[in-house]
Amino acid sequence: MLDALKARLARRRALTLAARRAVRPWAEDPAERRALVVLPTAEAEAKEAWRFLDALGLPPAQILPVVTSSLVAYTPTAFIGRVKRLDEKSLGLLGLPKRSVAEALWAQTPDLAFCLTPRFDLPAAMLVGASPAAFRVGLAGLDDGDAGAFFDLMVAPGGSLASALDALREALGKIEPPVVGF
């Protein structure tokens, strides 16, 4: 019963933060945009997510990688030591990232925010959905309740993360003006 109450309070808090976010304008040139990316924690899924990020064509310095666990399963060489891990000390009583942690990530001025976790993850959705990024993207199904409040573009995870990321890459490629420089 206490866990259910905690989950409801966490969802309400995350939704409130997403609704009150201050959106900042993004860089004019898609190739100069910065991306906050919440990555999956399983190794095979993390490798798929990193392949997707590589296809975006953003230099490593413009990608702010985050995992919502203390363990980083896989990281390309260019990102070793740069992945922000949200361990137990980074989370508040409701299981959401502490305000100071979230604000430190958001202060790095992301233009885009991606939640690439294959299952809806409230702390990840909150980091992306309440960020100041002009465009927020997530993987979420119709059964994920109010996931739409956190994302501007959602792609259903489908059969595999690889297929969902392919669909996301295709959707991003069709947006005009371009979101990323591919």
Secondary structure: elements and pairs:
Elements: H1 2-19, E1 35-39, H2 43-56, E2 63-67, E3 84-85, H3 99-106, E4 112-115, H4 122-129, E5 135-139, E6 153-155, H5 161-174
Parallel strand pairs: 1-2, 1-4, 2-3, 4-5, 5-6
Helix pairs in contact: 1-4, 2-5
Mean pLDDT across every amino acid position: 91
Rg: 15 Å
With strands numbered from the N-terminus, the spatial order across the biggest sheet is 3-2-1-4-5-6
Category from helices, strands and their pairing: alpha/beta
Summarize the main sheet: 6 strands, parallel
User: What is the percent of helical residues?
Assistant: 25-40%
Question: How many H/I helices?
Answer: 5
Oligomer: single chain
Strand percentage: 5-15%
Query: Secondary-structure element order, as H and E?
Result: HEHEEHEHEEH
In short:
The chain is an alpha/beta fold and 182 residues long. The chain has five helices and six strands, in the order H-E-H-E-E-H-E-H-E-E-H.
Structural features, described:
With 182 residues, the chain is of the alpha/beta class. It has 5 helices and 6 strands, in the order αβαββαβαββα. It has helices at 2-19, 43-56, 99-106, 122-129, 161-174, and strands at residues 35-39, 63-67, 84-85, 112-115, 135-139, 153-155. It has a 6-stranded parallel β-sheet, with helices on both faces. Strand 1, helix 2 and strand 2 (63-67) form a beta-alpha-beta unit. Helix 2 (43-56) runs parallel beside helix 5. The longest helix has 18 residues, at 2-19. It is globular, with a radius of gyration of 15 Å. 35% of the residues are buried.
